[in-house]
Amino acid sequence: MNKSTKNKILILLVAVMLLAAGLFYFWNKYMKRGTPGQTLENPDDSFPFGSGSNKDTQFPSSASNRSERGSIGDGAEMPILRQISDKPVAGGIAFNNGSTTVIRYVERGTGHIIETTGDSFEFAKISNTTIPKVPEAIWTPDGQSVIMRYTKDGTESVFSFSANIIKATTTQDVSKNKKSAFLPMGISGLSVSPVGNKIFYLTNDESESLGATSNVDGSQKNQRFQSAITEWLVSWPNKDTISLATKPSFAVAGYLFFLNEKTGDDSKILSGINGLTALVNKTAKNILYSESVDDSIRLHYYDLKNNLSKTLSFKTLPEKCVWSKIEELTIYCAVPKTIEDGEYPDSWYQGSMSFNDSVWKIDLKTSSSELVYNLQKESGKEFDIADPFLSGDDEYLFFTNKKDLTFWSLSLKK
User: Fold this and answer.
1) What's the rounded mean pLDDT across residues 34-55?
2) Which of 78, 69, 75 has its CA nearest to residue 119?
3) Is 105 a residue whose pLDDT tops 50?
């Protein structure tokens, strides 16, 4: 073998060795471990139950906050108006754990449960049980259970799954928790008691509506209500009082009833009000309600104890308001800047009308009010607020933007 041939073989060996080293590096860095930040999930995940990675996952709080990811201790300042999720949500909850406000919500597209806190940009997926297309998630006040309501493609049946959260620190499959369970099929309305240990739900047969209380997992059912009316909106504002309002329409007289949870006795509170929707406070003595009049909305406050009613100067729907948890006669409301002529509340529910809201604080005792936050002016974005709720100390107002179903918080103390 001459010297030229030896050199060629040597060069070829070196090239092969370099190629092998490069392939090994690429495989070890990208293929074996996955792309950095990637969440590896089973592509076959589907309901009834699928589970993905068992690793905690960090989620950016919003497009505007992505450059600020990290805890507050890292130097990032929490904004007054915060986008918690840039994906559509089915429902959220906030509760206190010591001095920390814990925030949980359900992703509408997947049914995954996500957690963060009021003073951190860190997000963790605490349940990866996949339930596709969940439009509604109803939480217990302590955030330990959530009822996800959904339909399956090709069916009209409404499924309600009560999911119990075992641990908040690790990703879990909530379907394997013994306290998780399916509720009866075809529930038309559901609410959780303010204590959080019971639910009230309605089911319909061909000619009537039946209401029952049970534990959150559906056990220990007791029938409490029966009516020939089959369309109701349900809430449970007071531990002994369940609120039942006929589903509203602008041209139909509406009614509000209170149901005694212990005895099953019901009493008529409001009647004969077109487009009636109502928001009852925790004492069940103060009621905010609206009526449809002159192609618009008229908002009223009703003092049940003294049988007094007064019309408020603001025009908005009770569904866009929330009662303060620390001041009995104070409400926080999303008030539209303008309200075009329409058939309310139908136009808003159906999505043919959308609002551009600001947040106001209203003292019903003194009839005074103050602008809390001009959402569009401060953010450059329009908000049509739905499903508002407060943290336990009125520190944060949480809500869904009906325009894109994203989840937000507003600090009321800053």
Assistant:
1) 33
2) 78
3) yes
* Predicted local distance difference test score (pLDDT) of residue 167: 73
Q: Where do we find the tokens 């005792």?
A: 365
Please write the tens of the pLDDT for every residue from 189-229.
Answer: 999 999 999 999 999 987 899 999 999 999 999 999 999 99
Place of tokens 């959080």: 196
What are the residue boundaries of the structural domains of the chain, listed by start?
Answer: 40-176
pTM: 0.82
30 pLDDT above the threshold of 80:
no
